[in-house]
Amino acid sequence: MTPGSTSPSLQIDRLCCVRGDRTLFHDLSFAVSGGELLHLKGHNGSGKTTLLRALAGLLLPESGEIRWQGENIRALREEYARHLLYLGHHNGIKGDLTAVENLRIAAILDGYALDEETAWRILAEIGLRGHEDLPTKHLSQGQKRRVALARLLANRATVWVLDEPFTALDVAAVQLLQDVIHRHVADGGIAIVTTHQEVAMIGANTRTIELGRRDA
Amino acid sequence: MLEPLYWIIRRDLTIAMRRRADVFTTLIFFVIVVSLFPLGIGPEPETLRQIAPGIVWVGALLASMLALEQIFSADHRDGTLEQMLLTPQPVSVLVVGKILAHWLVSGVPLVIMAPVLGLQYNLSADVLLVLMASLLLGTPALSLIGAIGAALTLGLRSGGVLLALLVLPLYIPVLIFGAGAVEATASGLGGQAHLSMLAAILVASLVLAPLATAAALRVAED
């Protein structure tokens, strides 16, 4: 965040998402602004992933709007994508490319150059020292996840939308990821995270929203 | 705009180089299909010369369709496709890059191999040259048109058959003008007009197909 710029804000206005013929949630409204961490909870099938995909702009909601800085993300499209980093169930890395190649390609497509040296440093930081130039198909599940998460360290996006980022990670990596997320939020970014695990997401500005509560 | 285009092509070519088996299946399929006909029909030179343009072209068309399914499916499976939709780059530009890389890997070998196969059919040098030219203009158009079908059938269980049903009818004009150019040259009429039509089809599909493919990919990831 450059000083003086307006604080980032993401508004969700009466959002309704339908999968098949099941309404996952309706009239869901909330807002997240810079420096906030939103922790989405809910049982399996409550629509966490659907909500995150809608927030990323991958999925068209049945009704309602998602607004970034007051404008619908459907209209902004690429302009919104510039501020967004989405990490889904899939790692989004190519098994035939090395960790360094994966990270650099992702950076270039995200619109900034990442030199070889920085890529190596980031991968070492995330605990992949010695595996930087192996094709990622030879890595373990947790290591692949780390390659995907390395994008968090390289990226300059404001809004992080992370779907189950802690799966397949060991204790050290979970700790590291928590630190990275908290640092991002402390820097004025937005993080929207889902987890099954009782990972301590509690920080200064954590809010929790629980989907699919059957209290209606 | 050109930088992501360059990188996506480089990325896909790197991946293709690391899994060369996929590249060769298309080419070998083309060689076998085209070589089967002389064996089945018999060695009558005049007959072979007459059917050559159609057979080489149908072979190239089927081979290029065979390769189509791979264009987006791997990226769809590992999640890199959804990441591409979320980049600030225009999706149609990325699509152009992917199609171009796909054509370089699956289409260009067909163009290079075609004159060798044409020799089996007793084609003269100038006819072989036109055959290559027609494939050079025609195969990228096939890749571009086929990409729409590949994007539409992404993630479907029996996608392969559906893809053929969707795409083959759209291939007909390319086939007619491609084979027509070779035939016209062989009969002494000159294939210029046919080649111009092929070029026109290529330009039109270059403009329209990436937009349609990008839209179809967004639907597939929804």
Could you say which structural class the secondary elements and strand pairing of chain A correspond to? alpha/beta
Largest sheet of chain A: 5 strands, parallel
The overall average pLDDT of chain B, rounded, is: 92
| CA gyration radius of chain B, whole angstroms | 18 Å
Gyration radius over CA of chain A: 17 Å
Tertiary shape of chain B: elongated
Q: Total number of helical segments of chain B?
A: 10
Note the overall shape of chain A: globular
* Number of separate domains of chain B: 1
Can you put this structure into words, describing what you see?
The complex is a heterodimer of chains A (216) and B (222). Chain A is of the alpha/beta class and 216 residues long. Chain A has a domain at 93-156. Chain A is built from 7 helices and 9 strands; from the N terminus they run βββαββααβαααβαββ. Chain A has helices spanning 48-56, 73-76, 78-81, 99-109, 116-125, 141-154, 171-186; strands at 9-19, 22-33, 36-41, 63-68, 71-72, 84-87, 159-163, 190-194, 206-210. Chain B has 222 residues and is mostly helical. Chain B contains 10 helices and no strands. Chain B has helices at 2-18, 20-41, 45-68, 70-78, 80-85, 91-106, 108-120, 125-152, 159-186, 192-221. Chain B starts with a helix and ends with a helix. The relative contact order of chain B is 0.15. The model of chain B has no long low-confidence stretch (mean pLDDT 92). Classes of the chains: A alpha/beta (216), B mainly alpha (222).
